[in-house]
Description:
Layout: H1 26-35, H2 40-43, H3 46-50, H4 52-80, H5 88-120
Amino acid sequence: MIMPLTTTRLGPDWPCQVKTPGSYDWERSAVKWLRELVPARYASYPAFVRHPVLLARHAQIQVEHEIRVARTALQTARADLPRAGLHEGVIEHTIKLYAAEVTQLQHIARSVRAVAQALAGPGR
Length: 124
């Protein structure tokens, strides 16, 4: 009799670059993905290498900061960019870019939270 593989249902925010929790090498895939979200100097800190939960925490803080920066850029673009001598078309394009970036960063933040929760898992 062949036993079916058990799979964990992952939500829509689970990053496709990270394997399913409990599967072979899943934590390594999580660490690799998280390291891409933080500045390189942080990704190589021994504490973050040894403790993926710390890396996930820092990635959460990093992404939250990036969201604040993108929101500030979006909120100030219409007032600040004309003074920089940019044409209206460039300004409108930039505003759309910032809005899309905020949306993307919010999705990444949810993904980081999901990975962090899985890394912290029960009994850790």
